[in-house]
Design brief:
Length: 368
């Protein structure tokens, strides 16, 4: 028997126990993703057990699946995938006061130590002891039953869907990127890359008061979506010369962007940002460039462009939830495909293929 067993007393439902088999999407190596049965986790006093609902596939997930590594992180043992998730509380630890059984929550996937200098300074995303879902060696939440620190679970209002809860993770990246880029009233902004994070960044930038937003990509479908979501100018990249794109942008907006946020994770995007950004401006690196080529860094230094990196986010989930809850940012149009947990491999294939025109792929963990 599978499922959650409930009883009712005076019209109120109470959870008795969970009989659901716990299955998870486990990566064993490059191109070796399996659906397997795993034990139901035991929670600690400050944790909750979640019945996972919606989990999104991120670009980093695809890199782990395809190559067994992403950036400086390498898969060394089997790992449960997934870090963009939402779920329903089915069990609470004795120390948890702000959540109860039945609450639906968005899961902020990073749980820092909370005691180091970086954590105490508010930059817990840089904590060297942080647990982060689906980053080796830490297991993720692409499973039916998952335990997590209650402190990093954010209760969803009734009108916010499970899918929107899962989308708070990439939205938090967008919120943090705009903060790092000091995007505000009157900002002229260039976004390189019209993937989910790039489009979410343009929506956050609009709310911050950016007056001109240019977005670039190689895909017509994503550019069209970006235009429909508020981009003032959408430019298809058809050249291998970043200075040409920069000159084109300057001609269109009659000047140079104050800020560039690079979301494509390409060497071309990084170089474009250097050429395009106004002298004295900001270049925010969200994507991770492969390297192996020369960048016009001397030009960046001569222009006094401040180049800053983004690593995940810190203190951004409340803002992301507020934006979605109040209807200020609509994340739903970005969700292009949905799959049950049993079809996770197909979901990853869809997310990785250009032919599918996928933007954000969601896996529904409570569906067979």
């Amino acid at each position: 028997m599978q499922g959650t067993v409930w009883f009712k007393l005076s019209g109120t439902a109470f959870l008795i126990f969970t009989t659901m088999e716990n299955i998870a999407a486990i990566l064993h190596g490059a191109n070796d993703l399996r659906i397997e049965s795993v034990p139901v986790p035991e929670i600690k006093e400050n944790e909750v057990l979640l019945s996972m609902k919606s989990v999104g596939i991120c670009g980093s997930d695809i890199k782990y699946w395809m190559y067994g590594k992403c950036g400086k992180f390498t898969l060394e043992k089997p790992m449960v995938m997934g870090h963009e998730g939402s779920g329903k509380v089915v069990k609470v630890g004795s120390g948890v006061k702000h959540l109860k059984i039945g609450d639906r929550v968005a899961v902020e996937p990073g749980v820092p130590c909370g005691t180091c200098r970086l954590c105490k300074g508010g930059r817990y995303n840089l904590c060297q002891s942080i647990f982060f879902c689906a980053t080796p060696p830490d297991d993720g939440n692409l499973c039916r039953l998952y335990r997590h620190s209650a402190e990093f679970c954010f209760r969803l209002p009734d009108h916010v869907t499970d899918e929107e809860g899962a989308m708070l993770e990439p939205l938090a990246v967008a919120v943090y990127s705009c903060r790092k880029g000091k995007v505000g009233l009157g900002t002229k902004l260039l976004i390189c890359g019209a993937g989910p994070v790039g489009i979410l960044t343009l929506m956050v930038a609009k709310q911050n008061g950016a007056t001109t937003i240019v977005i670039t990509d190689i895909d017509d479908t994503r550019l069209a979506l970006a235009k429909s979501m508020g981009a003032d100018v959408a430019i298809k990249v058809t050249t291998d010369d970043p200075s040409t794109i920069a000159a084109n942008i300057s001609n269109i907006i009659e000047g140079f962007p104050d800020v560039t946020i690079e979301c494509s994770g390409t060497n071309f995007g990084f170089s474009t940002g250097i050429y395009a950004t106004v002298p004295g401006g900001l270049l925010v690196m969200v994507g991770r460039v492969p390297g192996g080529v020369e960048f016009p860094l001397n030009l960046a230094f001569t222009k006094e462009i401040d180049i800053t990196g983004v690593f995940r986010y810190a203190n951004c989930y409340p803002t992301a939830l507020d934006l979605v809850s109040k209807g200020v940012v609509d994340v739903k149009p970005l969700i292009s495909h949905r799959f049950p947990l049993s079809e996770t491999v197909k979901a990853f294939q869809t997310a990785a293929s250009r032919d599918t025109k996928a933007v954000k792929v969601i896996i529904e963990c409570d569906q067979n």
